[in-house]
Amino acid sequence: MANLKTLPFLLILLVACISVRPEQPQQVQEVPVVQPPQPVPEPLPITTYDQKLPTRTVKQTGLATIEYGLTEDNQPVHVKKTGATWNYNYQNGKLAEIKGLKNIEFLYNQNRISAIDLGSTKLTFNYDSRGRLVEVKGGHETLHFDYDSLDQIRGVRRGVAGKTSLDYDKQGKLKYITRGLKTTNVHFDDKKRLRQFDGDETQFIMGYWRDNKLISLTGNTFGQGLGISYGPDYPPREAQIKYVEDTSTFAAAYETTLYKVVDEYVYCKHVRRFKDLLFEGISYAVYATYFNNNVADYIAMHYKCIPYEE
Questions:
Q1: 116, 122 in Cβ contact below 8 A?
Q2: Using 50, 70 and 90 to split pLDDT, how confident is the model at 291?
Q3: At residue 98, what are phi and psi to the nearest 5 degrees?
Q4: Per the count of CB atoms within 10 A, which of 85, 121, 199, 270 is most buried?
């Protein structure tokens, strides 16, 4: 009987001894977050230039001390002057960039100049189906070019108002340049060299030396006149500018290199008298006939002139 009496007690004790374990939290397996693949940046294009080394030099003294470095075929490589150096880079034989106080990039399409990029300004060149330059945009005014059936430039329109008209003789030589109400007569000599401009307020006479090299600019446009003296012998190794505003002297070991630098210097510094205009009739006539180049090259020359002028 005693055992029966203690049975309920034992059962209670057994229940008390069994502890209820707290429920274990279910473990959640962490799934790693898969990051989407990051795009690999494309490498910046590497601009490669033709290897051009200056093998010829022209030294300028007088108005300034300047060294011009050129290749064997007289392509400019550098212009070094006090406080500034200009370097020329080429691609596929064409001038691609001039780097200096300003950076000037020349772009091409189908072997024709398509743009000139100065960073803050970009000129674009548009051509028609016959390859003729018909428009230049990006300057102070858009230029429009009109042609005749012989592909000669007959008119250059600036914006909506200004226009320069060009007329030719039967041999295709430029005869008249008209801007507004002012007409300038253009004369050539018996060797088909551009010789003289005559207008109401303009007289501009060009004189030549051996090798058809320009040696004088006279007429009321140049006051007492500008002369270029080559020597001391032939072929020349020196040239001296004789002008009230310029007494520069140039020296080189090769006459073709000397001619190249002096011709471009005189054109940039003295023939281009209206440097803010992208097109001006007289400077275009000189450039197209003396350098035998087209109107797109004429406009590009405005920017190639910067190392000579600054």
A1: yes
A2: very high
A3: -120, 120
A4: 199
User: For residue 190, what are the β-bridge partners?
Assistant: none
Torsion angles phi and psi, residue 220, rounded to 5: -65, -20
The dihedrals phi and psi of 154, each to the nearest 5 degrees, come to -105, -25
Picking from 206, 223, 224, the residue whose alpha carbon sits closest to that of residue 267 is 206
Region 229-237: mean pLDDT is 96
Q: What is the pTM of this model?
A: 0.83
Give the rounded distance of the alpha carbon of 153 from its chain centre. 23
Give the pair of three-digit tokens for residue 270: 């003295």
User: Is there a contact between 118 and 303 (Cβ–Cβ < 8 Å)?
Assistant: yes
CA distance 179 to 177: 7
- Helix axis angle for 281-290 and 295-304, nearest 10°, is 100
pLDDT at 41 over 70: no
- Does 92 score more than 60 pLDDT? yes
Query: Where is 252: in which H helix or E strand?
Result: strand 249-252
| 107-111 own/partner pairs: CB under 8 Å, 24+ apart | none
